[in-house]
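Deviation from plan, reported transparently: fructose -6-phosphate complex.
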Amino acid sequence: MCGIVGYVGPQQAEGVVVEGLRRMEYRGYDSAGIALVHDGAIAARKRAGKLANLEKALAEDPLPRACTGIGHTRWATHGAPTDRNAHPHLGAGHRVAVVHNGIIENFAALRAGLERDGHELESETDTEVAAHLLESAVQSGATLTEAMQQVCRRLEGAFTLVALDCHDPDRVVAARRSSPLVVGVGDGETFLASDVSAFIAHTRDALELGQDQVVTISRDAVEVSDFDGRPARADSYRAYHVDWDLSAAEKGGYDWFMRKEIHEQPAAITDSMLGRHDAEGALQLDELRITEGELRAVDKIILVGCGTANYASMVAKYAIEHWTRIPCEVELAHEFRYRDPILTRDTLVVAISQSGETADTLMAIRHARQQRSKVLAICNTNGSTIPRESDAVIYTHAGPEIGVASTKGFMTQLVACYLLGLYLAQVRGTKYGDEIAQIVRELDRMPAHVQRLLDAADEVNALAEELSGTRSVLFLGRHTGFPIALEGALKLKELAYIHAEGFAAGELKHGPIALVEDRLPVFCVVPPRGRDQLHDKMVSGIQEVRARGARTIVLAEEGDDEVTRYADDLIRLPVVPTLLQPMVAVVPLQLFACELASRKGHDVDQPRNLAKSVTVE
Ligand code: F6R
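Because the crystal trials were delayed, the predicted structure below was used instead.
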C-alpha cells in the first residue's frame, strides 16, 4: 500500500528515486511523484496514474540535478487518485515536502486546526496535514528531525512519513508507526524505502527500524530516535544483510513477474524445505522461539490471514488437525478481533502473511498477544512488522514476490503450514517418526511434481486462449480441494476481472448449481483416489454440473481413469497424498488466470484497484 523512497548521496537523485519507485510500484499505482532539493528550493513533479505517466512528465520537463530526493507511488486512501492528491505534498511555504504511506486517523481534527490558523490545504489527503505541521515546526526553529518527532506525537493511526527540508539539503528524515520502513546503508550514500527491493541495486546492507522511531539519514550517517527525541536503544532496530540480489527482483525474460514467480515455485519449495529436517526426516525448526513445552500445552490453534493467505490457512486446518488432533479454527484476520474470540495462554495463533505488513493481520496478532496467546507468524518478508511482533516465525523462503497476485508466496505458505503441523505432531507424539519422515519425503518430491506441471503449461495456456471470451467460471473442490477452488476463483477475479466463484462441491445442490448454464466452464479439483468416498462424491458433483450443460475442466491425478468420461478437458496432476494435493492442484489454476488475463490485455502484475501490501485496515 504505497511505496516510498528517499535518497541522499552523490548520484543524481531523480534517477535513483525513480528506479526505486519502479521496484515499489507493485505496492500501489494510482499516482506517483518525486521531490528533490535544488538550490535551496524544492523541485517536485507528480502525476495521476502509473509511474510511466510521471516518467513521461520528467522526460518532457526534467528536474534539476540534485543529491537529495524522495518519491512515492500511491494506493489511494484519502482522496481520489488525481494529480492534486498525488504525493509529495508540500508545506504552506513550499519549504518541506512529504510522502506518506498509511492513514492518519485524526487528520480531520488536525486539518480543522490548521485551517483555523489560516492554512490553505490544496488536496483531500491526510498527508498534506503532516506537510503543513512539519513546515510550521521548522519555521519555528526546529530541525526537521525535531519537527518530525513533534508531529508524530500528534498523529494517530499507522504511517510512514518521509520528508525533506530545502533549508537542510543534505538530510532526509523519516518516521514509522505500524507501517514499513527500511534504511539502505551504502558506501557514501543512504536510502529509505518501504522495502529493500527499492535499493537492492545499490546496497544489500539494510537496517530495519523499530516501532515509533524517527530516522535521519545523510550520506554517511543514520541516526535513530524515538518520537520523544531520545536516541533509540541499539537493540530497538536491526541491521541485516539481504540474502537475495537484483536479479531476483527482475523479470528474467518473462513477460510478467507473476509468470516468473509461478515458474520459480519448484525452487521456492526447495528453499523453504532447506535445513528444516534431518536425513531421517525428523523436523528441526530451530528458528521457532516457542518451547516444546509450550507447544505441548497448545489446546487450540487459530489461523488468521487474508485473501490467498486465508486459503493457505484453510488447507492447513485439514493437515494440522489430522496430524495433531489439535482443534484448528480459520479466521479472516479482519473479522478476528471484532468477534471477541476465545483466546487463552494455550491458544496458538498462526498469522500467515506473505508481506508481513497486512494491517488486518497485524491488528489480529496484536489482539491475540494482548490476550496472552502465543503468536507464530508464517511470513516471506524478513524483518517485516508481523514476524517482529510475533513470538515466533517460520520464514517462507520464496524470495521477493512482486506480482500483486500471490503465487509462490501461497505455495511456500503451504510448505510452512505442513512443516508446522508435522513439527507439532513430532513434539506431541501424535505421529510416529516414520510416518512423519514419509510425508517429509513426499514434500521433498514436490519441486519435481510442480516442475512437471509447469513443463505442461502450454496446454493450460491453450485452454485460456480458447476461453478468453468467457464471462463466468466456476471452481469446485472437496476437502483440501475446496480452498484451492476458492484460490483459483480469486486469481481469476483479481486478474481477469470476470465473475468467478469457488464452491465446496457438496454445496452445489444447496443453491449454486442454479448458476450452471450451457457451456459454463467449471474447473473440478478431484481428490486423489486414496480417499475413495471423497473421490466418488466429487465425481458425482462433476456429473451433476455436466448434466446441466457445463463444460467440465477436470484436474485429476494420473491414472484416475474413472473421471475421463466426465471431463470435457482433462488436466493431469501428479500422484500425491490427499493432504498435499493443493501444492500441485493450484499450479494449473495460477497458469490459467495469468494467461487468461494476459489474453484479455490486462496488466497481470498490477491489476486494477489492488496493491500488493495492504497496510490499511
Ligand atoms: C491474492 C493476494 C491477496 C493476499 C492478501 C494477504 O492473490 O495476493 O489476497 O494474499 O492481501 O496478503 P499478505 O499475504 O501479504 O498478508
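Residues 306-309, 353-355, 358, 361, 405-406, 490, 494, 613-614 surround fructose -6-phosphate (CB under 6 Å). We consider this an acceptable substitute for the interim report.
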